[in-house]
Amino acid sequence: MDQPPSSVKLLGSWADSHTHRVQLALKLKGLEFEYQEEDFINPSPALLLHNPVYKKVPALLHGGRSIVESVVILQYIDETWTDNPIMPADPFERAVIRFWCHFTDDKLAPAVGLVFSSSGEGQKAAVDQVHENLKLLERELKDGAFKGRRFFGGDKIGLLDIVLGCGSYWLAVFEEVMEVKLIDPESFPVFHAWLRDFEEQQEVKETIPAIDRLLEYARGIRQMMLSLSNSSSSSINNAAASSG
Which residues form the GST C-terminal domain (predicted)? Predict the structure, then answer.
């Protein structure tokens, strides 16, 4: 029997894709929950209490107990409230989903992050790595485990759609901020069509912040990174000039 959704609280951050994963899963399940906005720099005592190991969002509180790490939280939600499942029943299919979730967080996300945090040849290499990862996903959608499906989860959004989709909108943001091309509809037509379909779902629209707000946030972070980099360079140059 499903557990009642009472006493469900999410500690998260408005711009954090991992928080969006949990928010979207709760919406797809039709669950009501309390939300507490967290500051990346100054986490609340509640967040430090409920996630003392990593000290970061998201953290889901249910019945006085805490669950952390977004993919772990998603599986907990699906196993606790079994209506509107986001994971397949077949063990092998579940294993495939878990593999590609790991791929998303272990391969694709770090490459996308490096595009944002690097420049010059390093950034070009990061863009190439993003493209190589997208080629693998495109292949799986066209001829692999997810061939012929509207979503990775089938006819409805599933766990892998949530993990991959909540974060893929940053690709468009980074394209504009960094002036690079990450998703070419001609190179990745099936993935591009999947992403557009995902973004048009009502629950997704209710979860993902407006693109203008994300752009403003990304530009602010980028400017701060450039300022820190320039400050470090100046310190090194000054030290070199005063030595000897």
Answer: 90-221
In the block, residue with structure tokens 């292949």? 139
H, E, C per residue of 29-60: CCCCCEEEECCCCCCCHHHHHHCCCCCCCCEE
Which amino acid, 13?
S
pTM for the structure as a whole: 0.91
**225: confidence class by pLDDT, cuts 50, 70, 90:** confident
Alpha carbons within 13 angstroms on the beta-carbon side of residue 103 total 18
Domain assignment present for residue 153? The answer is yes
Phi/psi of residue 9, each to 5°?
-135, 140
Instruction: Say whether both 71 and 107 belong to one domain.
Output: no
User: Which residues partner with 62 through β-bridges?
Assistant: 8, 65
d(CA 68, CA 167): 18
Q: Hey, how many other C-beta atoms are within 10 angstroms of the C-beta on 139?
A: 14
pLDDT interval class at 233 (50, 70, 90): very low
Q: What is the 3-state secondary structure (H, E, C) of 166-197?
A: HHHHHHHHHHHHHCCCCCCCCCCHHHHHHHHH
Query: How far is the C-alpha of 23 from the C-alpha of 162, rounded, in Å?
Result: 10
Q: Give dist(CA 24, CA 2) in Å, integer.
A: 19
